[in-house]
Amino acid sequence: MCGIAGIIALNNNSEDLVGQARLMNTSIRHRGPDGEGYLLLQADNEIPAFGKDTPESISNSTILHKPLQALESIQNLKGILAHRRLSIIDITATGHQPLCNTSKTLWIIFNGEIYNYIELREELSKLGHKFHTSSDTEVILAAYSEWGYGCVNRFNGMWAFAIYDKNKKQLFASRDRFGVKPFYYCKNENVFAFASEQKALLAAGIVDFKPNEKAVFDYWLFAAMEEEEEGMFKEIYELFPSHSLTLNLETGELKKWRYHTLPYSNKYSDTNFNLAESSEKIQSLFLDSVKLRLRSDVEVASCLSGGLDSSSIVSAIYKLTGKGLNTFTTAFNDKGIDESHWAKIVSEHTHSNAKYTYPTSTELLKDLYDLIYCQDIPIWSTSTYAQFRVMRLIHENGIKVVLDGQGGDELFGGYGSYYFYYLSDVLKHKGASAFIKDANHTGFFKRYFSQLFIKKYLGSLPLSQQLNVHLKIHPELKYLNRDFLQRNIQRVRREKDNYTLNDALNKDFNNTLLKCYLKCEDRCSMWHSVESRTPFSDDINLIEYVFSLPSSVKIVDGELKSLMRKAMRGITPDAILNRQDKKGYMTPNGQWIAEIRNDVRHSFENPALAEYLDTKSILKDYEALFNQPNKPDDGRIFKLIAFAKWFEIFSS
Question: What is the distance between the alpha carbons of residues 433 and 84, in angstroms, rounded to a whole number?
Fold first, then answer.
């Protein structure tokens, strides 16, 4: 796990490249404090360079890709590739990056893990490739050399990388299938630049801070987070999951394409489906996915919320190894939201060493700048802080690698919101009686019809009426600037939602909800120099099998994640498998907001913020808005604080 950045001159002006590359790499130092490396690109020459964080063991080594000089300006500089290293696999000097092949015609900077690298290495060795390191990075280079752009289809893992191909005079970059690892870029008449985090492009002055109104509007109206290529920052673009790109270094031509589309079943039921066989298959695939993600040259631990997903990961590790491990949990004194007693059941079952963190509002206030800055974007709830604190605890215990359960809900159907699609399927395929029975059983009967109106009929109303409906459903939206709303009113119209349950799961898994949570996972972990591995989110074998199954087996008799529960019987404690009270990083959100409100009030006094928020009304109604300690977390009120703080941090 690392951080990557790069900048390519698209004209003859290379005067600022070194300074900009250094600023980008410094801004993401937290992603890789163990090392720093650069590759200076000239028209016909490549010079590996070192920075202040490059260990002497690298500079004094005899490795092929040894840095030859300090990072400094040289003549005819065409571009720079930059890397920050978090040493996990091949922690010796040979794991240093940028890494090259033996002929030095290919150079790579890589962030992520290719978990099946050992198997790929064996396959490539039989094809004649020679290896000089034990890293998965070198396997990527050999795979690219053998299979070209199609190499990514053979990877099981998470990745964002860039390969400089000297013979083709081009840059090839790719991102993993579902967005575990990030890749952002910008392109203007002067440069093409990319980095693991948006802040790097801002820190280097390649683009200036300017909110993208379209993304800001979607954030407020639909709780949608950067679902288009141009995200919250104007002129900074995201290379979407399952996409690759090439940049021609001579012409500056940029090409992008999708290399993977997740196949999924459009069936409601299948007469050939066998529950026992399917459960056994899922268990086998899940255990394999966890086993692959235990590959590391440093200690591996696990997050443990007490929910089904993280509990199953910890239980799977115990079954595979026969040993306990270090587990990390957020806990609260409020029994209504605390899940530590569930986590304790798992840690005792697996003989693990359980560690807990107890966040407070005072600590949230102290960490608020770092929390927002590390995310790059405004968040929507203090639940992100719970994850942030778990990752800090992991770092404080000297752990670099953890497994986490992100993606289990989107894969197996774990959110209450999926009841709408489940009930729609039941109504269509089983009739009204079955629908009424299941709707009453799940407690979703009344909510179903309000959701039906929003998803299927709201879009037929005039735009102004659609906006008014949103304002009525979510009263806090009245604190948005009315001119801002009117400028973007065309975005109110959303496509009619006629999804089945499998349609909805597929949508959430691809570039929408899951990607949003994975971004939080990446930023919280990497801010603390921790690699988070998520088997539910990137094990292609497990994912493709589950998506091949009919929707009727995902939620059964109103039980969410029914398949996962059955598959893990005998491995995960029954108490966890029988839980129905999903929480998921709950925090005392309303209480915390009330307790920090006076200390964040100044953030709403920025005149420039009034272009997006009705700051006068917010300040007028301040007490009523933010002093609601018993208000349940609806993912809305804290967004006002988060957005104001985000604007303050990045505009200064």
Answer: 59
Question: What is the 8-class DSSP label of residue 234?
Answer: T
Q: C-alpha distances in angstroms, 214 versus 219, 228, 231, 234, 491?
A: 9, 9, 8, 10, 8
Edge to edge, what strands does the sheet with 99-100 contain? 99-100, 106-114, 157-165, 170-175, 243-248, 254-258
Among the listed residues 30, 437, 14, the one whose alpha carbon sits nearest the alpha carbon of residue 203:
30
Could you give the C-alpha distances from 168 to 27, 102, 103, 143, 633, in angstroms and in order? 31, 17, 14, 16, 53
pLDDT at 1 (0 to 100)? 63
User: Facing residues of 3 across strands?
Assistant: 84
Q: Are 20 and 204 in contact (CB under 8 A)?
A: yes
Distance CA 214, CA 40 (A): 37
**Residue 258 CA to chain centroid, in angstroms?**
19
Residue 601 makes CB contacts below 8 A (sequence gap 6+) with 619, 622
The reported pTM is 0.96
Residue 400 neighbours by CB under 8 Å, 6+ apart: 1, 86, 87, 88, 298, 299, 529, 530, 531
Rounded to whole angstroms, the Cα distance separating 318 from 326 reads: 11
254 within 8 A of 536, measured Cβ to Cβ? no
Q: Which amino acid is at 380?
A: W
Q: List, for the chain, all residue ranges whose pLDDT scores fall below the cut of 70.
A: 1
> Rounded distance, CA 224 to CA 470, Å?
14
pLDDT of 536-551, one tens digit each?
999 999 999 999 999 9
Cα 441 to Cα 337: distance, rounded to the nearest angstrom: 24
